[in-house]
Amino acid sequence: MTTTTPAISTPAAPATDASALTGKRRIAFASFVDENYLPGFLVLLRSLALSNPDVCEDFLVLHDDLRPASVAAIRALHPRVQFRRVNADHYDSYVKGDQDNYLVRKAYFILDVFRIRDYDTVITLDTDMVVLGPVDELLALRHGLAAVPQFFYGDKTRMLNSGLLVIQKEYLTDEFCAKVDAIGRSGKYELDKHDQGILNALLDGDFVDLDPKYNFVKRRLSGDLPVPEDTAVLHFTGRHKPWQGGEAGYGQAQERWAEFEMTDAELHAAFLEAGEAHHDLLVHFGTPHVERTGDIGTARKVALAHIGAGDYQSAVEILERVHLPVDEAWPHEVYGHALMSVSRYEEARAQLHLASAAPNRAATAFSRLAQIAWVHGDDDQARDYAMSGLTVDPTHRASRIWHQRTTGIPAQPAGRAEDQLAHVAFYMDRQGNAGDKLLPESVRLAFGKDTSSRRWHSVHAHRLFDEAALERVNARKGLVIGGGGLFIPDTMPNGNSAWQWNVPDELMSRIDVPVAIYAVGFNAFDGQSYRANRFRESLRLLVERSSFFGLRNHGSIEKVRAMLPSHLHDKVRFQPCPTTVTRQLVEGWQDPATREDTILLNAAYDRAGLRFGHDYGYFLAQMAKAVKDLGALAEVKCAAHSLDDEKLAFDLRREHGVSLPVIPMYDFDNDEIRDLYARTKLVIGMRGHAGMIPFGCGTPIISLISHPKMAYFLRDIDRPEWGVSVHDRNLAALLVERSRDLLADHDRTVADVHGRQQELWKTTEANAADLRTILGG
């Protein structure tokens, strides 16, 4: 292997790689570990978990040899650890001195870390460090190579201390490694004397300064001085390490290190008292604590962490391991939530009734009981439970939603069953997401002008598909399934299918009318997963049973085909979302003669951690700058598809003093949604349908990409430049530049939108011909 070939690398990301599509930063900690320094590294891991319980990034352990027992000890302290062997051979041409010396071997690591290719930010930590405070600022860094500067006595040369580096992707390149190699071969720097010598020679002082608190060296505490309270990372430089007995004159520093010298059981107990915790760490430390102690409170916390991550079966299993006293309401409520999420409804009811006896958990328990009743088609009982929840707490939002969903449902004239198509979709509530509200009608328009109950029999995807529902569907002339990203595991979880349609396999297999899956999307977020086996089995049966299986973008097609046996791949075809061809579907559509001088801005906040990672503060600051500059082009307004979307306007005003008018689209009917998007000049949207709906109305768009589906759509219309990642380093500048370009010749841009739309319409028309044959006209 040549010196310019990365020792640590991964292949280029495929087209469906979520991080590559969203631009979400991949962050990792990294340390070089050997057997001699293993005690220090174990303390480092414990200190990181206890001082930053809400932080859980990948941790790369670079080593040239570790015993199995050492590997097991490390794995016990971090749920996302990866072991990577370094290759010192490519340093033979320029390393001098004793190659068994730890400083030399650590230098291999310092140089080898630049050969990592699968992360955007790498934070190196020495194994003689202990983390005492928050490191959020390091995670938020986005540019350059950052380190704490150091100065040797009598030498004013600006140099970095290499114990802690924050390295961005522009340094994790073959080009930079080649420069490192060139300086190394010069023989000028002996790594066993100054392990940072090569980096200092290469950077020549050009690095980003970190506050000394992030690499506070022990020698500054000579004379047994106390460790400053704001120290985030304490570095035990020198030959005498804490696990070897330490060094005289540094007693208070040694005491801080000793705080983290503990057993795994002691770590688990301490972590569970540490405050707001990352769900991966909570599961990793809480699970063995529950197994050892049977502690109910910890079991509840771990179960909630599993629920938050969409792993409902694991939530059930952790609570099954402990005895829940009758008078412990909160664990019963969480257990009921987990059970209903895997479709163990009767057991869930029992647990939720126990929880409803406690005033502080009753409203939530009653709302979940209302949900179970509604899922089973019992609106009256659901309304009664919801009212019980409101009686306990009149402000309880979930109870109010279930009460509204089951109150004042208008009766609609029904057509003859033999003339109708059954339609499985997510039918949005009155103040629900504007995009999801429009979707079912858009799907129906693709099958004809009449979208009413005369021609359509509605089947809510989230209601249990039981024998009665099967009988009603089989009485129709066909079944259409479509209206959103139904392939997502957590909007309304169930154990029957593990996606949004709550259908048991046995009942799906007994549908005896033609089945058409129409413009469904694979909607998993970057970092989100399905219950793989249950979803795959349900998906395979659905594809086998269908006469038409159309997905709304090629990214979804690739994802779904990867889960199917090869003989079913050809059944999966492209069917664009009907909202993208709205101008073709709405009878009598007229493009606006004039447009309002506005730019509509939309942001989404569901699953915010998956969307933004550590970058929300950066995103908000960039949006504040963009809004100010966009204001010179047109008036900027916040288009809120849901109530939560208004957070953008609130946060911009509170954090940056930027005010935006808010348009409550969640209160709009379908015609109002289409009309608003048709009359504006440009839409900058984060939600999928804040891009697809205006595009379908003929309006130019720019997508704020925080979910792969945005990139999928732009790739399908061959306009990837109409998207900008929410993590982009130049987010504000790019948004303003691209907005200016699209608005400069607005007629030309609109014509381009129409041309792109026409290509989607051709596919839709071709599919329509097949569907007419399948569904009998």
Structure description:
The structure is a single chain. This protein is α/β, with parallel strands linked by helices and 777 residues long. The protein is built from 31 helices and 23 strands. The strands form four sheets. Strands 3-2-1-4-7-6-8 form a seven-stranded mixed beta sheet. Strands 11, 12, 13, 14, 15, 16 and 17 form a seven-stranded parallel beta sheet that branches. A six-stranded parallel beta sheet has the order 20-19-18-21-22-23, sandwiched between helices. Strand 1 (27-32), helix 2 (38-51) and strand 2 form a beta-alpha-beta unit. Residues 1-14 and 191-195 have low confidence and may be disordered.
Reconstruct the topology from this structure.
Blueprint: H1 18-22, E1 27-32, H2 38-51, E2 58-63, H3 68-75, E3 81-85, H4 102-112, E4 121-125, E5 129-131, H5 136-140, E6 145-150, E7 159-168, H6 174-185, H7 197-203, E8 208-209, E9 216-217, E10 233-235, H8 251-258, H9 264-271, H10 279-293, H11 296-308, H12 312-320, H13 329-341, H14 345-355, H15 359-375, H16 379-392, H17 397-405, E11 421-425, H18 434-445, E12 456-460, H19 467-474, E13 479-481, E14 484-487, H20 505-508, E15 515-522, H21 532-545, E16 548-551, H22 554-561, E17 572-574, H23 582-585, E18 598-601, H24 608-612, H25 616-630, E19 635-640, H26 647-656, E20 662-664, H27 670-679, E21 682-685, H28 689-696, E22 701-705, H29 708-716, E23 723-725, H30 731-744, H31 746-775
Parallel strand pairs: 1-2, 1-4, 2-3, 6-8, 9-10, 11-12, 11-13, 13-15, 14-15, 15-16, 16-17, 18-19, 18-21, 19-20, 21-22, 22-23
Antiparallel strand pairs: 4-7, 5-10, 6-7
